[in-house]
C-alpha cells in the first residue's frame, strides 16, 4: 500500500484516482466510488482487471497503428476489406467512430498525432514512414485523408498530399460542411463556404 | 462598461467580474478536457486574453470555425478577474482568413506572426497599434503577392510597437547619424538594441554586420504606413541580412530560438 493510501484511506485514494479520468470531478468520482463499494468483489475485480489488461495486452498494429492485442489488427487481416483504399486518421478513436457507421470497407492508417505549426510540434515520423511503405507496395490506389478540419489537421493534410501524390496514388479529403440536424441560419461562414465548395449534383432517381 | 475596468487588466481586481465585448484576433488554442478549448486572443480593448470555450470541439458547437487561428472575430468574454481564466460566451466571425489555413506558406508565415505576438506581448495590456498591425498583416498575407516581405515588414514594426524599437539612424555609442550611401560597415547589436558604427564596434559582442542599404530600408519602412511600405523592394541580400538580424534580435527578446520563415525561398513543409 502506498503512503498516500495509508494517509488518506482506501476510499479517498479511489476517489483521487477516479478524478484522473476525463470529465470526472470530485462529486462524480465520489458517486462512482460508492457504486464500486456496493458491487460484488468479482465485479469490482473485473473492472480492475480490464484496466490492467488494456495496459498490458494492447499495442499498436504493426501495419496501421490501430490498437490491437495481436501484432496485426483484425481490420488489416480481414480479407473482405477493400485493400485498395486507406483512410488516414489522427487517432484510433476516430477510426472507431468511422467503423460505427458501417459505410467504409477499406483499410485505415492511424497517424498518432498531427503537425502543429503554431506550437512547432511535428508528426510521428515512424507513422508516416509506415504509410509510405504501404503505398510503395503498389496495391493501394486511393488515400482518403480524414484529419480534423482544424489548422493542425489541415497542415497534416497538405504535408501528406505532398508526400503521397508523387507516388501516383489518388489523394482525397473527406467532405466538410453542415452537420445533419442543424438549422442553416446558425452555421458559421466558414462551414457554409466549405459546404458550398463541396456541393454535389443530385443524381436523378 | 465601468470606466475603471476599461484599459489595463491589472485594474481588474480578483473579486471583480466583467463582460468584455471587443474585436479580437485568434492567436491559437489548445485542447482542454474532453471537448473544450483554451483559446488565446489578441483583443482590441484588452490586448492578449485567454478564455475557455466550453464544448467548442463538439460537432454542433455554437462556436463553429470562429475559434480557429487567424480569425478576426467579435468576442464576448466573461472575465472572472485576477488570474482566473475567462469564459468565452460568443465569438462571431468578422473575417475568417480561411485561405491562410489552406496553403502551406501562408500557414507558416501567419503562424509566425501570431506566435511572435503571443511571445512578445504581455497578457492583458491593450495595444491598438499591434492589433491593427496583426489585422493588416494577416489580410496582406491572404491576398498579397510578396508574403515573405509582408512578414519581414511585420516583424520590423512589431518590435517597435512592443517597446523594442531598434535605433537605425545613428550609432548607439557615439550618437553620430549614419550618412546615406556611406561605405563603412554597420553592425547590429541585439543586446544593445540598435546599430553601431565600425569605430564603436570594438569591444561589443556579438555583432551582426549589415549593409547601409539594409539599415536604411529598415529605418524607412518603419516611418511609412505598413501597407505603403510594401512599395519598398529589398534585394535578396538585404532580405537575408534582415532575416539574420531579426532571428538574433527576436531570440534575445523572447529568450527562445527564433526561426524566420520569411527567409526561406522555397517550401519548408517538413
pLDDT below 50 for ≥5 consecutive residues: which ranges of chain B? 1-11, 265-269
**Could you tell me the radius of gyration of chain A in angstroms?**
22 Å
**How many distinct folded domains of chain A?**
3
**Helix coverage percent of residues of chain A?**
40-55%
Major beta sheet, strand line-up of chain B:
1-2-3-5-4
Quaternary structure type: heterodimer
What string gives the helices and strands of chain B in order? Answer: EEEEEHHHEEEHH
Please estimate the helix content of chain B.
Answer: 25-40%
Which structural class do you get from the secondary structure elements of chain B?
alpha+beta
> How much β-strand is present in the residues of chain A?
5-15%
Rg of chain B from C-alpha positions? Answer: 20 Å
How many angstroms does the end-to-end distance of chain A come to? 69 Å
In DSSP terms, counting alpha (H) and pi (I) runs of 4 or more, how many helices of chain B? Answer: 5
Spatially, the strands of the biggest sheet of chain A line up as 4-3-5-6
CATH-derived topology of the largest domain in chain A: Dna Topoisomerase Vi A Subunit, Chain: A, domain 2
